[in-house]
Amino acid sequence: MKHMNSEVKEERTSNKKRIDLFLVPIVLIAAFLNLFKIWTDEYANAYYTAAVKSMLQSFHNFFYASFDPGGYVTIDKPPVVFWIQTISAKIFGFHGWSVILPQALAGIGSVLLLYVLIKRTFGVWAGRFAALAMALTPIVPAVSRTNNIDSMLVFTLLLATWMLFRAVRTVKFGWVLAAFAMIGVAFNMKMLQAYMVLPAFYVFYVVATKITWKKKIAFLTTATALMLAVSVSWAVVVDSTSADKRPYMGSSQTNSVLELAFGYNGINRLTGNTSVTGSSHKQPAQTEQQTASSETKQNSNSSADSSQSSNQRKSSFSQKMQAPGGGNQNGMFNTGNPGPFRLFQKGLSDQISWLLPFVIFSIVGLFAGVKFKGPYTAKQKESLFWLAWLLPVAVFFSIAGFFHQYYLIMLAPPIAAFAGAGAVALWSMYKQHNDWKSWLLPGGILTTAALQVYIMSPYVSSIGVAPIAGVGALGVILALVLAIRKQRKNSLTNYLGAAAMVVLLAMPAYWAMTPIIYGGNSMLPSAGPDSSSGMGGPPSTATNSKQSGFNGMQPPGISSGNSSSNNQMQPPSGSSNGGQMPGGSSNNGQMQPPSGSSNSGQMQMPGGSSNNSQMPNSFSSKSSSSKRKSGGMNVEVNQKLLNYLTKNNTGEKYLFATTDSTSAAPYIIKTGKPVMAMGGFSGSDPILTVSKLKAMIKKGEVKYFYLSGMGKGGQSDVITWIKENSKEIPSSKWQSTSSSAQQGPSGNGTLYEITLK
């Protein structure tokens, strides 16, 4: 009891101390990286932004996280983060920056939380360095500058960690419950991804808490039950609500939140399998053809840009296929090929792995001399926590079937924690020991500098030789000098150690700034000189790299005079489906059509026509009136189509219906009116049947259907029925001939009208 009281008093005394002045510039750096120019991203990830627009209109839409104002289908994630974004938009107005702001603040908050967590046990300098490493981890600001979920997820898990550490210090059961309940809240942000930290929570509580085993088991069992209850609370409410009284659960195949959680957003991400209408397919590694498809994401800045030769594009594809030293390491969406060294492959290494060798040396130093049976020091216990966070997550990303680069933010806290704690520990060993431990610091510096040279080598054409050679040379020199000057306790040695840390953080700092320098991509955020492409790989030769990588998708009805026949399949906005549409599989690296499609081996576009599997990348028109400044979709609408639909609306609930969210999102954002994405996010959700559609038309809920040159997904019967029972509207009445249009489905789209009596 006396120990507990002393801990509390010590914490209160610590809280009354002055602000750490060294922390101020670190927080300012984090604020700059996370906040600067977010106001230029007009509508961020349009898939999620459209949902916020819809959620602002009614509590029904708000509670269910409806994608459209009509409450037809939800987005593909649980609602907590989008509740926060909607509240932000309600307070500050509906803007791109207002839906990004919560994530940006969460990114800054994570830096502060990590400082607090590390400082208490490992010392103030360890806390400072950990906070700085977190702020400068490139994928952290890249994600935090978007309205994707992951930044808020990591902040929530770090808050749960703070609660757990407090539970161990104070030996209070209430804090244990709070920590696990917070993981339950995180589950309602991104489902099973939140549970990645559970091994760390269980191991740490068992090892660090000084209570009987009986109490440990009872406390953890109760806390786990509470976590599960919080986790499924929203799902149980939704799944127990009659399907006709709520939106369809987007990206599920059975209209179930729990199926979405444990399938599409759960186990399938590990296995690489997705299921549609009872069939399951495994996604193989990416081939050259699919990697080449990512090149179509590069925007052009003028009509001359759009006429770039196919030879130039092919040359760029070839460059992107070569990893340092040769070989294909891009993998699906530049996530590398599964294996023990996946995190060191390009596409992932430059997002998260800059300090990994130093972290490995730090782990060795922090656990040096530890005996399995203990006793353990406070530093060793907390090191065990961060190791139990790092290893399972690293293993997952090393073997997972599909994910996006920005998911790697889950590795940022333990890497930063070990970088901070390890820097102090290795420095102490370097100064105080003359055995093998004294070699850990120069060894960590040397190997980390070598990895950073490897990471940067594919980017010579973008960043030049100087920074690569500089990091390599300085890393080698500083490591050698430190090795020579071992145990010399003078100011020069101190300066050399500080200089080494600066060298190791220099290029991660530059990489963290690339979304500001080159432009970001709100759909698939990544860092690097091609950050605007959302692919995080070596830069291509396409012009105007500052533009969003997802280009070419036109608003319905805007015709294009130079559509490319070389367009390849790209991910739809906001997709977390690792490069697959729900239910899609890949064959020899080519995207496959959803179930029910006859377009063998090629991905169809929503609307029913195969169109050589050419799917455009996003709504990125090059009109001077374009609103997209830094990433995501362009939300320019075809005003002529909008005028026609508005004028001829006779009280229908939906302005029009289309096959997927890509065509619907910009019209929802611009008008706030219901637009039906018949097949949900990607067009493959089995939401609509012919009989249900007939009933909706008879009720006067919808009469206009825009079908582009995109695939049917699981809606083959519905699309066929629409075409057979509708009147085609002449394109002259609604189709724009805007010369600003780039590549896209525009010219292939058809507007239909159906009225049933």
Percent range for β-strand residues: under 5%
Radius of gyration from the alpha-carbon trace, in angstroms: 26 Å
Q: How confident overall, as mean pLDDT?
A: 80
The poorly predicted ranges are 1-5, 275-329, 540-554, 557-633, 739-747
Task: Give the end-to-end Cα distance, rounded to a whole number of Å.
Answer: 79 Å
Q: Could you estimate the helical fraction of the residues in percent?
A: 40-55%
Characterize the main sheet: 5 strands, mixed
Silhouette? globular
Structural class: mainly alpha
How many extended strands?
9
Strand order of the largest sheet: 6-5-7-9-8
DSSP summary: helix tally? 28
Note the topology.
Blueprint lengths: L1 H14 L7 H13 L10 H10 L3 H6 L15 H13 L3 H27 L1 H13 L2 H6 L5 H21 L2 H18 L7 H11 L4 H28 L16 H15 L1 E4 L2 E4 L5 H6 L9 H4 L3 H12 L27 H4 L3 H11 L11 H22 L12 H21 L7 H17 L3 H4 L1 H20 L6 H27 L68 E2 L2 E2 L47 H9 L9 E2 L2 H11 L4 E2 L12 H9 L5 E4 L8 H9 L2 E2 L21 E4 L4
Parallel strand pairs: 5-6, 5-7
Antiparallel strand pairs: 1-2, 3-4, 7-9, 8-9
Helix pairs in contact: 2-6, 2-7, 3-5, 3-26, 5-6, 6-7, 6-9, 6-20, 7-20, 9-10, 10-12, 11-19, 18-20, 18-21, 19-20, 21-23, 21-24, 23-24
Overview of this protein structure:
- The protein is mainly alpha-helical and 757 residues long.
- Helices cover 50% and strands 3% of the residues.
- The protein has 28 helices and nine strands.
- The longest helix is centred in the first third of the chain and has 28 residues, at 213-240.
- The relative contact order is 0.12.
